[in-house]
Q: What sequence folds into this?
């Protein structure tokens, strides 16, 4: 249950999730890592609906990082297959007015997956409810480098002066353009690091780490994270 406590006492507008622990969840049960990823996909669908019912406007999920290509071919193939399968289910959010967006480089993804991503974005672009952002082949450093290259191109063309490159303008070149900064970042699985996720966007985010594995992450766990956020006082550098 959500509580009103001293602190911000306001719901976060944008929550980002590092969905960690699927492999450990499977190993504890004597199952292959791929079984954990399948269970994690079911958790994702459930948590999206929980977020929507709570009134959260934006949610970003770290589904596959630029570093995840280092995993075994079998695990990478399974993950990519899961993305393709679950995008069909996510499109079913159409009746719930949820908008889908994707961030991350698409160059290494299959033609089938890229097409499904484009179709999902197109079908939901007019939806006015919660926006769900899936980060696939995403890295925070890569995002910033791409934005820097775009800035350099515009400066080289003469359409942007170096003195006009403000933080706000640079931010518009990031893949999350049009999305508010992250208010709360949640990482499951007991690790305490951000793993190259939304480096720019979480500059003033409240960080929340839990030992709960992603597959076990429930609405109760989600409410605990949001309640913790609302109990904190966000100062943005102010000494108050």
A:
């Amino acid at each position: 249950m959500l509580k009103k406590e001293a602190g911000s006492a306001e719901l976060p507008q944008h929550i980002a999730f590092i969905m960690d622990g699927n492999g450990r969840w499977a190993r504890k049960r004597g199952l292959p890592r791929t079984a954990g990823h399948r269970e994690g996909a079911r958790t994702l669908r459930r948590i999206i609906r929980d977020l929507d019912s709570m009134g959260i406007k934006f949610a970003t999920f770290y589904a596959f990082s630029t570093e995840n290509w280092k995993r075994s071919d079998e695990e990478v193939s399974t993950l990519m297959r899961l993305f393709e399968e679950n995008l069909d289910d996510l499109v079913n959010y159409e009746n719930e007015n949820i908008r889908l967006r994707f961030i991350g480089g698409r160059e290494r993804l299959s033609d089938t997956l890229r097409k499904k991503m484009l179709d999902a974005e197109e079908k939901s672009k007019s939806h006015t409810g919660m926006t769900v952002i899936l980060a696939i082949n995403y890295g925070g450093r890569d995002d910033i480098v791409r934005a820097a290259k775009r800035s350099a191109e515009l400066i080289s063309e003469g359409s942007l002066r170096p003195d006009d490159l403000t933080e706000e303008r640079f931010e518009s070149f990031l893949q999350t353009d049009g999305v508010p900064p992250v208010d709360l970042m949640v990482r499951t699985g007991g690790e305490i690091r951000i793993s190259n996720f939304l480096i720019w966007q979480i500059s003033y985010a409240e960080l929340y780490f839990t030992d709960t594995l992603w597959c076990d992450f429930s609405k109760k766990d989600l409410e605990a994270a949001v309640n913790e956020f609302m109990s904190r006082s966000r100062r943005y550098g102010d000494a108050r």
